[in-house]
Amino acid sequence: QGMLAVAHGVHVHFNKSMTTTVDEADSLIDAARARGVKLVSSPGEMLRPRHQKIKQLIDEGALGRLTWAVTGSAFGTYHEDEASVRAGDDPLTNINPAWYFRKPGGGPLYDMTVYGLHAMTGILGPAKRVTAFSGVRVHEREFRGQMLPTDMDDNTLMVLDFGDSFYAFVYGVAAGGLPNMGRPLIFGTGGVINGSAINGKPIEYAGMDLDAEYGMNGSLPHVTGAHRTMEESHVYEDVMQLVDWVLDDTPTVATAEHARHVVEIFDAAYRSAATGQAQPLRTTF
Q1: Can you tell me whether residue 159 is helix, strand or coil?
Q2: Average pLDDT for 28-55
Q3: Do 151 and 101 form a contact (C-beta atoms < 8 A)?
Q4: Which residues contact 282 (CB under 8 A, 6 or more apart)?
Q5: Cβ neighbours, 10 Å, residue 153
Q6: Hey, which end of the chain has fewer CB within 10 Å, N or C?
Q7: Looking at residue 226, what is its pLDDT?
Q8: What H or E segment, with its residue span, contains residue 72?
Q9: Beta partners for 245?
Q10: 3-state secondary structure of 168
Q11: Rounded distance, CA 112 to CA 194, Å?
Q12: Where are the domains of the chain?
């Protein structure tokens, strides 16, 4: 669909994940560049003032020398129990979640871990290598009495190498996650950033009061008025990034190149798990 849009000269916003392989992402970006088409990809985690402030603090040395970091997400039974789209009696409220568990685009990496990894790489920069173990742990799931087979890996654990012996642990698992989904913990010789706190003290940033009132989307630049209480307002923000770019030529940090790097990490992680070898990463943003 993305390539069709580009071929017709249509600017595109992609919800996560943009593609499932780095080769697909390369083809998409190259085609868009050749056609003069603009691409924006969710999740725009670095649009969040909190993440921008965290990056600033780290760049200024607030954590000393960085040592390691962690982020990830767990499926649990989120998709089976998502009441607004699963529990009703019409086609829009009883959507079968089977595709979340099937190849090629299912699994927790493309669906959930993508948030934390966009934030982590946005704050820390591109990774250089990845190694991983991956497989299927829960082989079928139940939805409304129907058993849904799982053939896409649902238990993936990765170690990323950012260079100079600075590593990160990233996971997308069938169940059981650490706190702060999508918000990386970052450790250094001078302490830790955990969610909205540095060494146990709140991180002050523009819009923190809005985030406290409306959730972490409250401080996003286009999330104002009625948009603060809409579902998935972070996706609305990412769409508006494309609108601004098309209308006003305003650049965005929610780039296809950043999305490609995250996709490459997932792609390479599956390859590492299959081969038993660490995989070098070639993309940046």
Answers
A1: strand
A2: 98
A3: yes
A4: 22, 264
A5: 23
A6: N
A7: 94
A8: strand 66-74
A9: none
A10: strand
A11: 19
A12: 2-280
Which three-class secondary structure state does DSSP give residue 176? coil
Q: Which residues contact 49 (CB under 8 A, 6 or more apart)?
A: 205, 206, 207, 208, 219
Q: What token pair was written down for 37?
A: 């088409």
Kindly report the length of the chain. Answer: 285
Q: Is 39 helix (H, G, I), strand (E, B) or coil?
A: strand
Rg (alpha carbons) of the chain, rounded to whole number: 19
Please give the sequence-ordered ranges of beta strands (E in DSSP) within 136-206, or none if there are none.
140-143, 146-149, 155-161, 167-173, 185-188, 191-194, 197-198, 201-202
Distance CA 178, CA 185 (A): 10
Architecture of domain 2-280 in CATH? Answer: 2-Layer Sandwich (3.30)
C-beta of residue 170 within 8 angstroms of C-beta of residue 120:
yes
Model confidence band, residue 179 (pLDDT cutoffs 50, 70, 90): confident
- pLDDT tens string 83-129: 999 999 999 999 999 999 999 999 999 999 999 999 999 999 999 99
- CA 82 to chain centroid, in Å, comes to 19
| CA-closest candidate to residue 105, choices 247, 270, 282 | 270
Enumerate residues 6+ apart whose C-beta is below 8 A from 189: 63, 64, 65, 67
The contacts of residue 38 (CB under 8 Å, 6+ apart) are 11, 12, 32, 242, 245, 246
pLDDT, one tens digit per residue, over 76-95 is 999 999 999 999 999 999 99
Q: What letters, b where the CB count within 10 A reaches 16 and e where it falls short, cover 204-225?
A: ebebbebbeebebbbbbeebee
pLDDT digits (tens, 9 = 90+) for 242-258: 999 999 999 999 999 99
